[in-house]
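Hi X.,

You mentioned you wanted examples for the new student's onboarding notes, showing what a folding record looks like when two proteins sit in one file. Here is a clean example. The first protein comes first, with its sequence line followed by its C-alpha cells.
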Amino acid sequence: MYRVVMRTIKTFLGVVCATALAAPALATDATLIVDRRAESVALYFKIPATEVSSVFGTGAEGLLGADGTVDVPRLYDGTFPLADDIFSTTTVSLGGEATPFEALSMMVHDPDVLPDFAMPYDAELSIAVCTSPETVQNMTLQTLEGYLGYFAWKVDGLAELQMTLPETGRAPLNLRVREFVDHVEVWDQTVTLPDGGVLTLTAPEPPAQASVGWLAFVALGFGAFAAGMIWPRTPKRKVAT
C-alpha cells in the first residue's frame, strides 16, 4: 500500500512539473512612443525594469548599488552610458538605411508615482533623472518601471522605420506603439513581437497635409450643401410673351 501511494505521489508531481515546463511564458507588456519630426526621430520606451534585459539583452542592473537597490548618486552621474549599452544590440533603419540612435537618458520610477506616458512631452519627463530620483531610493528593480529614450538627428524623420530587437530567448513582447508627427498622434496600436522580432512603421503622412486635405474636403462638402440649399430657391426668369 505504501509503495502504491508513493508511486501515485511521484506520478502526480511529475505531471505537475511537466505541465509547468510546458506552459508558455507570460508575454511582456511595454509601450513605445515614436516622436517624428522632419529631420529627427526619438524613441521612448516604458517597460518593467526587470524585463529590460529580456527585451534588449542588457538589463538595468547598472543602476543598482552593492545592496541591490537603486544607487541614487549613480543616477545623478548620468544614465545615458548604460542606456547606450542596453540599446547596442537593437538595430534601426530609416528608409532602408541603418541609422544610429544615441541614448538621451534612462530612469526608473516607483509604480505608485508613475508619470504619464501618453505623448512625447510625457516621455521626455519620464527619462529625466532630475524628476524624482529620491522616490526610488532603497527600491529594487522588481518594484520599478523602466523608461529609456533614444534620438537620431539630421535624418529623414518621416521615412519608413524598422526596428529589429535582439534574440534573447524571451517570451513574446506586447508592444503598444504610439506614433507622433510634430506632436500630433498618427498611430496607436499594440503589436506582438516574437523573440528577435521586427517592428515596421510605414512613412506617415505629415499632419499638416492631412489637415489641409481634410479641411478642403469639408469646405467642398459644405459648398455643395449650400449650393443645394440655394438652388431650389432661385426664382426662374420669366420669359416675355
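Then the second protein repeats the pattern, sequence line and then C-alpha cells:
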Amino acid sequence: MKTYGFLLTMMLLAVVLSECSGKAGRQGRNAPQPAMAGVERTDTGKYPLDSLDVVMPDTLEEVAWLIDNRHSRFHALTPKEVAQTRNLLKKYIDSGQYEADHRQPGDVSFSGSRLPLPLEKYARQYVGYEQAGHVKVFVQLNAVCTYGASLHNLHHRLLYVKDGGHYFGDATVDLTADRVEQFDLNGEG
C-alpha cells in the first residue's frame, strides 16, 4: 500500500513539474489552451475571453479595498478592454521589456526564475477602475501549474501570494495610454 501511495505521489509530482516548466507534451508554448473545468466562459462576440481570463466583480471585498486604496472608482470591463489588456501584457512579456525594466546594472544572474512565464501560463484576474480620467486595469497573475483544478476559485476571491517567485505577480495596464504601467513578479523589489 505504501508503494502505491509513493508511486501515485511521484506521478503527480511529474505532472505538476512538467506543467510548471512549460514542457507539457506536444502542445507547445503558443498552442491554444483548453477551457478549464469549472471556469465559466462569459464571452460573446468579436472579443472572446480566454478561459484563463477572469473579470472580477465589484462586489468582492478585496476588489472594493483595491479600488479604495487607489483612490479610484470601479470600471466594468468590456470583452474588448480585456482583450486589449491581454494583448498589451503579452507584448510586454514577449518583447523582453520586463527584463529591461527590472535588471540592475551589472546583474548577470537575471534569468530563469526571475523572468515571467509566458502569459498563457498565468490565470489572470482583472479589476477595472477609473483614475484621473484614465481607464486602468489591475491584473493579478497566478501560474496555472500552482492551481490546476482549483481555477474555479479565481471567480470568488482575488488571489494574492506574498512571495511566489515568477509563478505569481501583478500588473497595472493603462488602457487610455495603451501601455503597461507597472509589472512585478512576487519576490522582485
